[in-house]
Amino acid sequence: MTSACAIRLNSALTQDQKAFFQNPDQIRKVLHTAQTIAIVGLSTDPQKPSSFVASYLRDAGYRIVPVSPRGGLILGETVYRHLGEIPIPVDVVDVFRPASEVNAIAEEAVRVGAKALWQQLRIINLEAAAYARDSGLVSVVDACLKMEHGRYSGGLHIAGMNTELVTAKRTRVSGVRG
Question: For every one of its 178 residues, what pLDDT tens digit does the chain have, with 9 covering 90 and above?
Fold first, then answer.
């Protein structure tokens, strides 16, 4: 598999930080292998970015597990108050909470055996990211899981967006999804 370049976003990360925390091969691996994504901070408001991301990922075939202290139901799924309550294995912990809360979320992600910690766009806690990486998790910072999925699945090309990927082959990001 050849390495892809990252879409140049207006990121606060340095080039070295991008190499660690926005590595295209690591992102592609997460997208190919993940089945269950816990979204910490998933909102009940359908107009919030977390809701758009959750709906998109669910439609793409991932199992979405909402995590919020409020509990209840979101998108027809039980909302767990913290990662430790989730009764199934979690592959990705996708964070929609302030950067100041990510250290505790990273520690919990490691405890529950998640395979990746993903800090959404503009959520940057490098200490938590390094802790997750050093604990064996793939660690992504300041990137949108929905956008990355669309880029690597070919969905953004269909919409006319420049993904900076040059290929004649449309790929699937998981053998599980249609």
Answer: 444 444 455 688 999 999 999 999 999 999 999 999 999 999 999 999 999 999 999 999 999 999 999 999 999 999 999 999 999 999 999 999 999 999 999 999 999 999 999 999 999 999 999 999 999 999 999 999 999 999 888 755 444 444 454 444 555 554 444 4
Q: Alpha carbon of 123 to those of 101, 103, 140, 141, 156: distances in Å?
A: 10, 12, 10, 7, 23
Domain 15-144 coded CATH 3.40.50.720: yes
Count of other CB atoms within 10 angstroms of residue 121? 17
d(CA 96, CA 169): 32
